[in-house]
C-alpha cells in the first residue's frame, strides 16, 4: 500500500494518528504496569443479573486482550483512513476520530476492571 504524499503531510491526519498512537501506548503501559504481580484471578465481567456476586473472575489473558484490541484498532484505522483519503479527506478524519474515541472507551473500561482487582 503506497501512501499519498498529501496524506503524510496533512497536519490533521498526523495529529489524529499521533493521538491514536499515544492512546495505544498508554493502554499498553497501563496494562503492563498494573499487571505487575502475577496473582491468580482478575475481574473481567460485571453482570447485574447474578445477584450478590456480580463480578466474574478471569485470567490474565482476558485483560491482555485489551492491549491486542488497541493494536488492532490502531492498525485497522490507519489502513482504512489511508485508503479513504484518496476518496475524501473528511472521511479519513472521521475514521481516525472514531478510532480515537474507541481507544479512549477501551482505556476507561480496562482501567475500571483493573481498579476492581
What does this molecule look like?
By secondary structure, the chain is mainly alpha-helical. The protein has one domain. The protein is built from 4 helices and 2 strands, in the order ααββαα. The chain has a two-stranded antiparallel ribbon with strand order 1-2. Strand 1 (42-46) and strand 2 (55-58) form a beta hairpin. Helix 3 runs antiparallel to helix 4 (89-115). The radius of gyration is 17 Å and the shape is elongated. 21% of the residues are buried. The mean pLDDT is 87.
What's the topology here?
Layout: H1 5-9, H2 11-34, E1 42-46, E2 55-58, H3 60-85, H4 89-115
Helix pairs in contact: 2-3, 2-4, 3-4
- Work out the number of β strands: 2
In percent, how helical is the residue content?
Answer: over 70%
Q: Write down the Rg.
A: 17 Å
Query: What is the H/E string?
Result: HHEEHH
Mean pLDDT: 87
- What is the rounded distance between the termini? 42 Å
Coarse morphology: elongated
Structural class: mainly alpha
Main sheet record:
2 strands, antiparallel
Taken together, the total number of domains comes to 1
- Give start-end ranges of low-pLDDT stretches: none
Number of helices: 4
What kind of assembly state do the chains in view correspond to?
Answer: single chain
The largest beta-sheet arranges its strands as 1-2
β content, as a range?
5-15%
